[in-house]
Write a structure and sequence with these properties.
alpha+beta; 4 strands; 2 domains; 4-stranded mixed beta sheet; Glutaredoxin; 230 residues
């Protein structure tokens, strides 16, 4: 048994961050598939240790030896301390904080608008999410004028936070992301990310993208039907 056990699912963007980080850093780990609540089949048996140690009942979660941790960013920071030989944060405290500030900015301004696009059931909400996501991508374009990576001269946890959006970008377009997409620097950054060791562990195949899109189109259909009935 490996020191680390990862509890996650391919459709969850927050679990993707952790999976990418583990794979990119070459951290040996066991894996337990636990779908997020919204994608969890009714007959799915949730592992008892997950029930006992994930207060919100959501992925990601890891077990490190006899300790359990939840939430993607705290997990990724914790792994930095456990595996210093393959860092994704700078050792210098000031540089480290600089990266973490960008990690938290991306956490707020990438995921929120993306969620509005795929969870949106009204055109105005989807439009707002699409516009906000485009603005975030423009800010990332500005960052990438400074260096080829989002927060340092090499890949950091900022890449871990961006990766789930890169993976689902085509799906987001299919669900209504119609504003200006990645600029040339972000496109080049995406290409560099696809060359990283962690990319293969998180990239979607065609069937997964179709399932993602189909799931949210069905969600919209149900919500709009309920709205019409009321």
């Amino acid at each position: 048994m490996a020191d680390v056990t990862y509890y996650g699912h391919w459709i969850c963007p927050f679990a993707k961050r952790v999976k990418f980080t583990l794979a990119n850093r070459g951290i040996e780990h066991d894996e337990v598939n636990v779908p997020p609540t919204a994608a969890r089949p009714k007959d799915f048996v949730v592992p008892p240790e997950f029930v006992a140690n994930s207060p919100k009942g959501e992925v990601p979660m890891i077990r490190y030896r006899d300790r359990y941790l939840v939430d993607s960013i705290p997990i990724m920071e914790f792994l930095e301390n456990c595996y210093p030989q393959t860092p994704m944060l700078p050792e210098n405290p000031g540089e480290r904080q600089y990266v973490l500030n960008r990690v938290r900015w991306l956490d707020a301004f990438l995921m929120m608008p993306a969620a509005k696009v795929y969870y949106g059931t009204k055109p105005g909400v989807i439009e707002q999410g699409s516009r906000d996501l485009s603005l975030t991508l423009k800010k990332m374009e500005e960052w990438l004028e400074e260096r080829p990576w989002l927060a340092a001269n090499g890949p950091t946890l900022a890449e871990s936070v961006a990766i789930p959006i890169y993976v689902r970008l085509n799906g987001l377009r299919r669900l209504g992301f119609g504003h200006e997409g990645p600029g040339p620097r972000v496109e080049a950054h995406m290409a560099r990310c696809r060359e990283l060791p962690g990319w293969k562990a998180v990239e979607w195949n065609e069937a997964q993208e179709d399932e993602f899109v189909g799931r949210f189109l069905k969600y919209r259909e149900i919500k709009n039907r309920e709205r019409s009935a009321s």
